[in-house]
């Protein structure tokens, strides 16, 4: 019977295959349905896809901390396996809570569900270029750090990190433990973190530029180190070395047109340095930009080291008349530009060399300049200095309206040199005299009012006290040549002291000293060349006069004439 059935089936299949079907049956495409199991809190446990008619068997029982699995529900009714799927279906896992469970969330891509039984030790997070400082329950990282926890409620913790800044902190502390006396090179990046700075004083800028203070102070430099989110704040205390106090009656000031090549002896010998010159156009703008770079390169570094006050010196090449013609607009811009450069470069003040105001109109503008510049300069810092270079003798002081402008000078550099350049007269006499020291050659005279003693009296008559007067000495020789008629005329050139001294020592010139005028002079053997200058003896004599009369100090014109630094040594030692 079974064999007959097999034969029947084979024959039937054969017939189906062999006989053409005039009405073929189109097979249906497979149909799939989704089967989803959700947790009782709505979260999805599993989702699978099955072909229509598949028989689903019971999956592995799920587990849940603190609960016992009771089975599955569909629309609130028990759901059983096996199940023949014929549509999309979603069922829910049914639980019975056996123990309270809390959620511990660690804000570093970690979420835990833990029951409250037992103590839990929190993990330590490793992160390159960061230090892990612990777990906190707030983003301000206040309160106590969490190390071990025993859950009694849901808990959300945040990791606190500090930036690993390597040796930066140590290096900065080492730097701040040395007395500050110059620019410092700041670090702006470490381990990929950026650093910005804030300073408590203009003495040290946020870029590390040093401006020497006039008084002792404590400077706090704050470094802000950040990765864009975390900011580390570090503070460092610096104790800058201030300028030495100016000793009234012993001030040593020096003009110099020589910037490079100044020796340590020079910086050791002076209190005030006047680099000469910056110049300004008719609109109040500087026209010598190289002046500031040269001062910064050649003078300021050593000046900071030795405590010299470096002045911004505005000289005779300035278009003073052009500024007068442009009036207050030009002068106000000039003042603003001066103040900006004083702060930017690190000058100790301003020296005005307006040689010389022409008539009363320009004299009025000189007063305007000094009054407004003095006021604004002192507002920036009362220790900034404002000085002027004004000639000795009776001719020039009247053009500066000193009675009105005098209060706006800290000091006047009285140019008691070049007061005479012909007639066999001294350019730089300390005291007046009558007649000639050398009647034969008709040289060695003092023109009326052209001595230091007489010049001081003239300034006093204009209301300038001795305590504001710095007396000038010549570091060069003023030459006069004898004309055929026996009179002496200006030779049109000067001789630097470092060239003049060898001529005296070699006999090309014969040196004399006038005990009345208290200055030296030299003539050639032929009696046709007369040179007036200062030397060691006259410098010491003038220093004694300064001290005896309560004058402010001594200055020179100029250091470029004393490249061996001989006369500056005499000036320095004589004023001690």
Task: Give a structural overview.
It is a single chain. By secondary structure, the protein is of the alpha/beta class. It folds into four domains: 32-97, Listeria-Bacteroides repeat domain (Immunoglobulin-like, Sandwich), CATH 2.60.40; 101-163, Immunoglobulin-like (Sandwich), CATH 2.60.40; 170-238, no CATH class; 251-474 and 534-575, TIM Barrel. Helices cover 25% and strands 29% of the residues. The chain is built from twelve helices and 30 strands. The strands form seven sheets. An eight-stranded parallel beta barrel has the order 18-19-20-21-22-23-24-30, surrounded by six helices. Strands 2-1-7-4-5 form a five-stranded mixed β-sheet, with no helix packed on it. Strand 21, helix 7 and strand 22 (385-391) form a beta-alpha-beta unit. Residues 1-26 have low confidence and may be disordered.
Summarize the structure.
The protein is α/β, with parallel strands linked by helices and 576 residues long.
Side-by-side strand order of the widest sheet: 18-19-20-21-22-23-24-30
Q: What is the percentage of strand-forming residues?
A: 25-35%
CATH fold annotation of the largest domain:
TIM Barrel
The counted number of beta strands is 30
- Any idea what the CATH architecture of the largest domain is? Alpha-Beta Barrel
Low-confidence stretches: 1-26
Q: How big is the Rg? A: 47 Å
Largest sheet: 8 strands, parallel, barrel
Name of the top-level CATH class of the largest domain: Alpha Beta
């Amino acid at each position: 019977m079974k064999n007959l059935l097999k034969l029947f089936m084979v024959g039937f299949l054969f017939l189906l295959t062999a006989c053409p079907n005039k009405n073929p049956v189109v097979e249906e495409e497979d149909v799939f349905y989704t089967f989803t199991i959700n947790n009782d809190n709505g979260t999805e446990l599993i989702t699978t896809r099955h072909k229509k008619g598949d028989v689903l068997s019971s999956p592995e029982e799920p587990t849940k901390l603190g609960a016992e699995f009771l089975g599955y529900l569909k629309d609130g009714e028990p759901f059983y396996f096996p199940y023949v799927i014929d549509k999309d279906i979603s069922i829910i896992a049914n639980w019975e809570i056996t123990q309270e469970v809390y959620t511990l969330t660690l804000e570093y891509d970690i979420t835990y569900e833990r029951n409250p039984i037992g103590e839990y030790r929190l993990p330590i997070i490793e992160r390159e270029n960061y230090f892990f400082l612990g777990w906190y329950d707030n983003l301000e990282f206040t309160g106590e750090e969490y190390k071990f926890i025993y859950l009694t409620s849901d808990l959300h913790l945040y990791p606190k990190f500090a930036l690993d800044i390597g040796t930066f902190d140590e290096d900065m502390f080492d730097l701040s433990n040395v007395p500050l006396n110059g620019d410092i090179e700041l670090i702006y990046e470490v381990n990929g973190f950026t650093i910005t700075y804030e300073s408590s004083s203009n003495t040290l800028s946020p870029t590390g530029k040093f401006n020497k203070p006039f008084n002792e102070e404590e400077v706090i430099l704050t470094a802000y180190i950040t990765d864009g989110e975390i900011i580390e704040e570090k503070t460092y205390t610096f104790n800058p070395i201030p300028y030495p106090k100016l000793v009234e009656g012993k001030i040593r000031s020096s003009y110099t047109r020589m910037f490079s090549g100044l020796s340590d002896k020079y910086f050791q010998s002076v209190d005030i340095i006047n680099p000469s010159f910056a110049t300004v156009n008719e609109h109040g703008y500087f026209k010598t930009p190289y002046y500031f770079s040269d001062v910064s390169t050649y003078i300021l570094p050593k000046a900071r080291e030795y405590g010299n006050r470096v002045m911004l010196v505005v000289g005779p090449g300035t278009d003073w008349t052009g500024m007068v013609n442009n009036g207050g607009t030009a002068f106000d811009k000039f003042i603003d530009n001066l103040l900006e450069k004083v702060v930017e470069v690190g000058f100790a003040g301003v020296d005005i060399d307006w040689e010389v105001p022409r008539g009363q109109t320009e004299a009025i503008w000189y007063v305007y300049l000094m009054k407004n510049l003095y006021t604004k300069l002192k507002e920036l810092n009362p220790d900034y200095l404002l000085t002027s270079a004004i000639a000795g003798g009776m001719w020039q002081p009247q053009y500066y309206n000193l009675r009105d402008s005098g209060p706006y000078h800290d000091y006047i550099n009285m140019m008691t040199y070049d007061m005479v350049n012909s007639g066999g007269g001294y350019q730089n006499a300390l005291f007046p005299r009558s007649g000639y020291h050398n009647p034969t050659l008709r040289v060695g005279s003092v023109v009326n009012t052209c001595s230091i003693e007489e010049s001081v009296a003239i300034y006093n008559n204009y209301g300038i006290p001795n305590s504001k007067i710095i007396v000038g000495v010549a570091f060069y020789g003023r030459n006069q040549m004898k004309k055929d008629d026996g009179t002496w005329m200006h030779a049109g050139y000067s001789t630097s002291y470092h060239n003049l001294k060898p001529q005296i020592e070699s006999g090309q010139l014969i040196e004399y000293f006038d005990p009345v005028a208290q200055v030296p002079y030299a003539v050639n053997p032929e009696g046709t060349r007369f040179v007036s200058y200062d030397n060691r003896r006259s410098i010491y004599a003038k220093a004694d006069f300064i001290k005896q009369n309560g004058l402010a100090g001594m200055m020179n014109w100029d250091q470029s004439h004393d490249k061996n630094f001989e006369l500056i040594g005499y000036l320095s030692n004589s004023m001690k």
